[in-house]
Batch of 2 targets.
Target 1
Amino acid sequence: MEFALEAEGLTKVYQGKVVLYNFSLNIRKGEILGLLGPNGAGKSTFIRIISGLEEPDSGILKILGERAGKIGRRKIGVAPQENALYPLLTCTENLLYFGSLYGIGGKLARERAAQLLDNLGLEKKKNVPCQFLSGGMKRRLNLACALMHEPEIIILDEPTTGLDPATRVQMWKTVQEIVRKTGATLLLTTHYIEEAEALCSRIAFINSGQVVAEGTPNELKRRVGKELAKLTTIPGAPDKLIAIIKKINGIDAVTATEHGVVIEGNEISSKLPEISKALEKSGETIVELSLSRPSLEDVFLTMTGSKLREVVAVEPAKRN
Ligand SMILES: Nc1ncnc2c1ncn2[C@@H]1O[C@H](COP(=O)(O)OP(=O)(O)OP(=O)(O)O)[C@@H](O)[C@H]1O
Ligand SMILES: [Mg+2]
């Protein structure tokens, strides 16, 4: 069985408001999938359905090949968007408590708790009641609680919201390390494009309760546009340049600028050595070079016509 999670045509309606509509997404075993989309797109709703906190109104969800509901929730570890922690319990006690919910106790639980506190930089706070932690520390403890039982599927709803940049990068490392070590599948939501690029093997964009695009970061970028390379050369005779560059394979378009050309194509960066060689051969020297490639933000914009952080209203009347 290849997939950790298979969602097929999920629909969820809250008080007449369609929140998920024909939502389909497959998540492969062992991959890190990032779910991105604006506020209110339905990300947390999908996660609540996976966690068993909500039932879809229609559609099928399979977890590790089994219909959701049949599979033991022990296989899943969820760190929800709102921290779920006991304020009067210390960090260690919180971890031991969450471990016990999944049948992890004794020495094993104490070892795991100590290891997680260490990995997430909370070692010094182990005996501090969690009500006295900073916001970022609570966020990290919330993550640790989801990992106590070493789940096969880890689900993190905005794990790094509210973390400082250094801590965020530390969290990426910890999460990657855990996935590598345990072979777990990871589904995470984020509003940070750079986080998705750094961490995720695949990305799914969700808008108004539907997956609007999915693929590896590079696949997605290729879908919306090509790379552009801007060259300025000396002596810089554009007509001559165009004739030379057009002969190179994989170049889609070359247009003249004042002292050079703009070249368009897929993966232009990999063609640069070839281009510069051809130009040198014909007596042209590159004096300036800039490359631009579409960003994931461009992808989302193109797919949805809306900005990532914008709230998009879902109106059932417009559905058919
Ligand atoms: N229990 C509920 N009752 C009614 N409406 C709800 C409920 N839970 C969520 N919603 C609505 O469902 C929509 C999707 O919410 P959801 O929390 O899934 O969005 P999200 O993609 O996680 O957004 P964010 O990026 O802000 O976390 C929102 O319009 C929200 O108001
Ligand atoms: Mg959410």
Target 2
Amino acid sequence: MKLFAPQQFTRTAIALHWLIALLLVGQFAFGWLLDEIPRNTPARGWWINQHKSVGLVIGVLILLRIVWRLRHAPPPALPMPGWQRRAASASHLAMYVCMVLMPLSGYLASNFSKHGIKLFNVVKLAPWGSDDKAIYTLFNQTHQVTAVVFAVLIGVHLLAVAKHVLVDHDRLLSRMWPRAAMR
Ligand code: HEM
Ligand code: HEM
């Protein structure tokens, strides 16, 4: 039996949290900037394939993160009102769901289009689905709607962290901060 519960997330959880956060912010910007590139041009195809490829790499990191999280419990919650603890758990879970839905919907949409995926514009992955406009649109819309929901959740997450740092003056941020991690 452990006498003291660890007070930080594990080093791996922290590394994955920050790496994925950084990549996701870039990938959001990338996705929204794609709208600036005219449709049916070679340039658009090239950039879309880069977006798809980076997105798949992020998807693999997210899977790793989820497997790690399931095998390594987070540190016990800091003292706070029950509703805040429940809101934190619910929003973290919702962010994990969005982290799965973003790459998954993009991947599924790509496989119901004749374009498929050309990994980093080098390796062509032939689509395993039919070229079906309706199914493509369904997954593509899931991708677009999830992006907006996820962006709002990330905004709320940042506000919550700011509240802990600036108002509560507790050590919430240090639990997820690289220097503080001991294991
Ligand atoms: C794309 C951006 C981000 C995403 C998707 C994200 C996602 C998450 C998730 C899912 C958790 C829950 C961890 C778990 O219990 O397994 C978490 C925890 C945390 N995040 Fe983020 N995060 C992002 C950016 C940030 C940023 C910019 C900060 C700091 C300003 C931050 C600070 C924290 C802290 C301090 C915790 C730990 C909360 C605790 O101790 O319970 N996150 N994040
Ligand atoms: C991993 C995280 C990902 C994030 C955060 C992300 C984010 C975005 C965003 C914000 C857009 C713009 C949506 C809009 O115009 O409203 C977008 C578009 C797109 N994404 Fe992703 N994406 C990710 C992964 C992927 C993956 C893995 C694929 C495919 C394998 C993909 C394929 C696409 C395509 C094809 C579009 C353009 C849709 C269109 O303009 O019709 N994405 N993405």
